Amino acid sequence: MVAHLLTSPEWQEVRFEEPRCSAFITTTDDEDEVREALRRLTRAAVAYARGAGKVEQRRGLLGKRLVLVLTTADGVWQVGKRSFRHP
């Protein structure tokens, strides 16, 4: 299981390999806000790397879609190919 963290001053993102999906958090230039966003995304990446995530099939308007569900200390993440929900 591989996850990638990407960062910029206003955009923090985690990308997952299987299923191929990602989640992001937008931030301001405030360093503390950026660090907190990266901590949250890192917890999701670590949970994924440890195999704590499960892939579910959900029904959508265009048929079935895969959603990665991860539980971290922050709460439950639901990450799909075109949408996500994070705590």
What are the defining features of this structure?
about 90 residues, alpha+beta, four-stranded antiparallel sheet, three-stranded antiparallel sheet, about 20% helix, globular
SSE-based structural type: alpha+beta
Average of pLDDT = 94
Cα(first) to Cα(last) distance is 22 Å
Contiguous helical run count: 1
Q: Radius of gyration in whole Å, from Cα? A: 13 Å
| Main β-sheet description | 4 strands, antiparallel
Spatial arrangement of strands, main beta sheet = 4-5-6-7
Count the strands?
A: 7
What is the H/E order? EEEHEEEE
Helix content: 10-25%
Tally of discrete structural domains: 1
* Unreliable runs: none
Shape: globular
Strand content: over 45%
Q: Would you give an account of this structure?
A:
With 87 residues, the chain is α+β, with helices and mostly antiparallel strands. It has one domain. Helices cover 22% and strands 48% of the residues. β1 and β2 form a beta hairpin. The two termini are 22 Å apart.
